[in-house]
Amino acid sequence: MLDTSYVGRSLPTTEPVTITTESVSRFAQALGLRDDAALPPTYLISLTLPAADPLIEDPGFGLDFTKVLHRDQRFAYHRELRAGDRVSCTVTVESIKTVAGNDLLALRTDVTDEQGLAAEVWTTLFVAGGEA
Amino acid sequence: MSAFAGLAAGDAVFTASFPVARADLAAYAEASGDRNPIHLDEAAAEAAGLPDVIAHGMYTMGLVSRAVLEWAAEAGLDASLSEFSSRFAKPVVVPAAGGAVVDIEAKVRKVDADALELAITVVSGGEKVLAPARATLTAN
Questions:
Q1: Å from A20 to nearest chain B CA?
Q2: What are the residue ranges of helices labelled H in chain B?
Q3: Fewer Cβ neighbours under 10 Å: the N or C end of chain B?
Q4: What is the ipTM of this complex?
Q5: What is the pLDDT of residues A78-103, one digit of tens each?
Q6: Which residues of A touch B61 (CB under 8 A)?
Q7: A61 touches chain B (CB under 8 A)
Q8: Which of A29, A66, A76 sits opposite B83 (nearest CB)?
């Protein structure tokens, strides 16, 4: 079971990283997208999931990643991001719902650049309960 | 004139079909950094209670983004993706031999002068794997 006292908590904002042309190109090619330095629509997951690592690895939180399935994903894009942009991620635990002994963990990540909020990324993880 | 002139709620706007092979999942794992072995290794998938290796939900969602962007480019829409979401209802099972196929079908859910919302169904192996995906394009 997850520690529900984490709801509402945000992780420290990550240090700004530059989105490299190589990483955008590799991501675009893996999906067969046009490789033109525009961020593929789902690219930000490659930044937002690692940004949640401190939460996933926090023994106090109680998340067993071997029992996790990806349940929902949503992106809101406030402006176009491209290779070369510098962004930071702030992960917030939005909610934890328990349904039939399983947890639904909803995370929101604010992706910010020099001008402010550039995108929001919501990820809901299904965490199987019990000892199975 | 609106970027979305001529489109009405309920219109079927595109279908797309993509093959998915194990090698595609390996390439996506490297590109995305998501190296969960259930997407790469049969033994790991079976240990997790799955019938076989499954595609990353985000790989399938990525294919949907490709279908949306390719359609928007072909239709000459002067618009940008502003919202994109999906629920991963069922896994896309990818056997070593033959792989899988993902069939995508998009309909207009809502449209006005400024925004077009698509409802997108995605089927693989006879199952609806995304239930459904939604994409909103906003006029530039």
A1: 12
A2: 22-32, 42-47, 57-74
A3: N
A4: 0.95
A5: 999 999 999 999 999 999 999 999 99
A6: 42, 73
A7: no
A8: A76
Q: In what order do the strands lie in the sheet with B12-20?
A: A17-18, A86-99, A102-113, A116-127, A68-77, B79-88, B127-139, B115-124, B100-111, B12-20
Assign residue B98 a region (left: φ > 0; alpha: ψ between -120 and 50; beta: otherwise).
Answer: left
Is A81 in CB contact (< 8 Å) with chain B? no
Q: Copy the structure tokens of residue B127.
A: 């199952």
The pLDDT tens digits for A4-46 are 999 999 999 999 999 999 999 999 999 999 999 999 999 999 9
Site from A42, A69, A74, A81 to mutate, B interface, most B CB atoms within 10 angstroms: A42
The amino acid sitting at B115 is A
* Placement of tokens 């069922």 in the chain: B90
